Amino acid sequence: MRPKFPKMLPWLAKSAGVPIARAEGLWADAIRYATIETGWVETPEYWKVAVDRLLELLQTEASTCHPPRLTPWVTINMRMASLPMIAANGIALAWSAAFGQVNQRCFQTQAPARRAA
Fold first, then answer.
1. 116-to-33, 91, 113 alpha-carbon distances in Å
2. Ordered per-residue pLDDT tens for the chain, 117 residues
3. How far apart are CA 12 and CA 55, in angstroms?
């Protein structure tokens, strides 16, 4: 039998940035905690303790599993660091295009003239 999950679990998981499978595991932990804490099952106090514990676990999981997002300044610096490689690539393409045209002009062979039939 599949355990019952609250309908808001996928939304909570997504808002915390936690995979749904992991959130289901955290819900199971919250249920166990609520059973031990209250001593009863499926009472209003039990559900309140379970949901509160789930929110605590999701918050802890979100802060420990996921690295902090990069600030815009870091991404700008990463792009700036790649500019010399982009410029070198452009110069190499221009160089090869220029010498390709020179080679075609200098070493161009004339096609033999066709005879009129």
1. 98, 47, 9
2. 466 788 899 999 988 888 899 999 999 999 999 999 888 888 899 999 999 999 999 999 888 765 566 677 777 777 788 888 889 988 988 888 877 766 666 666 565 566 665
3. 8
